Amino acid sequence: MQNVFVSYSLDATFVDTLVEDLRFANVAATYDKLIVKPGDSFFEKLGAAVSASDHIIVVLSKSSIRSHWVQAELGLAMASPLFGARAVRVLPALIQQCELPASLSGKSYANFCDSYYSGLRDLLDALCPELYPRVAKFYDSRQRSEDVASGLEAVLSTGDAKATRRWFETHGYALAALFGRLWSVSEAIPQFQISDSSPVSDFLVVIALSYEFLVVSLGNPRLGDVSAEYLDTKVRALRDFVSACDKDRTVFFRCVALRCRDSDAGRCIYPDDDCYRSTAPVKIEGKFICGRRHEFSDRANSFRINTYNSSQGRIEVVSYDRLLEASRKLPQFPPIDE
To answer: Is residue 27 a contact partner of residue 128, using CB atoms and an 8 Å limit?
Structure first.
């Protein structure tokens, strides 16, 4: 296992995250917060930590390049072979565009300026190339989750209903991941209908393995821009659509199977042979997404509760913040074995 010391100045928030991620990948990373206790000598503790390390990650920013502590730690690492100590490999990590110290000007660096995960992958590839492919999958997944969250937050901040709808049209998979279960979600089918003459739902989220289907209707992201009649109309249409799907499930299942991009999911929902048709309970529910949570007045909350109760829990009115919060929950994976 590689022993790594992280040298930095004022960028504590970044370093807290970096050390946590390195330790997740079984890199024995440490920094001042973990080794210096009340009454300890900073110079002695940090000097000993640098000398005992295989690598020192120097976090480079406008503040760190002016820090005497960072300069001292870097100097100690680079001079260690001159005093008979083992060589300490220096890994620069650039988190802010700045003039690099002369001692590092010829070294390549992990670049965190454009993407945290790009820089992290560079460090992991240098520190543990044998584990890198496995841990990279986790960080790639987490980056996609955070990209979805930032993209959704940006479009919701505009309050533009058309822009919000366009975002979901190109990020339908986000609905599947946010409403479904990551280990069994099949997909989110856009513009779903059960016949050429029937109404069209914005999305149908298909969770094939558990036979759950969510009819999703996208409303205005600004509740203040809509009337009570608008809410009534949208919920009534959603309720009617769910009822139509429930009324003739054979037709519904066949339509879902035909639209599924995953052929295995399609066969699971509507198998060719009746002998293999599942007897598992089927859930067809509706989700109407509208407004932001802070906009929900007592009247709007009463409407939301009444809708849920009157439909026996099958129709739910939720704010876009529900999706935003779900998008920030990162998928959990077991830690790497030591």
So the answer is: yes
| CA separation for the pair 24, 294 (Å, rounded) | 36
Give the other-Cβ count within 10 Å of 294's Cβ: 8
Q: Name the stretches of the chain with pLDDT < 50.
A: 82-84, 330, 332-338
CA distance 47 to 59: 17
Residues 6+ apart with CB under 8 A from 117: 139, 140, 142, 143
Quick: pLDDT tens for 50-93: 778 888 888 988 888 888 778 877 777 776 554 445 677 888 88
Q: What is the pLDDT of residue 315?
A: 96
Question: Of 188, 215, 187, which Cα lies nearest the Cα of 201?
Answer: 215
Instruction: Tell me if 319 sits within 8 A of 287, measured CB to CB.
Output: no
Q: How far apart are CA 94 and CA 6, in angstroms?
A: 13
pLDDT for residue 338: 35
Q: How far apart are CA 338 and CA 336, in angstroms?
A: 6
Domains of the chain, earliest start first:
3-130 (3.40.50.10140), 149-327 (3.40.91)
Burial of 307 (0-12, 13-18, 19+ CB in 10 A): buried
Residues in the chain: 338
- Please check whether residue 113 is in contact with residue 95, taking contact to mean a CB–CB distance below 8 angstroms: yes
Average pLDDT, the chain: 82
Reported as a single tens digit per residue, the pLDDT across 18-52 is: 999 888 888 888 888 888 778 777 777 777 877 78
Using DSSP bridges, classify how beta strands 212-218 and 283-289 pair: parallel, antiparallel or unpaired.
parallel
3-state SS assignment for residue 205 = strand
Using CA atoms, how far residue 23 sits from 1, 48, 214, 229, in Å, is 11, 20, 39, 54
Q: Which residue type is seen at 270?
A: Y
Pairing of strands 3-7, 55-60: parallel
CB 211 within 8 A of CB 285: no
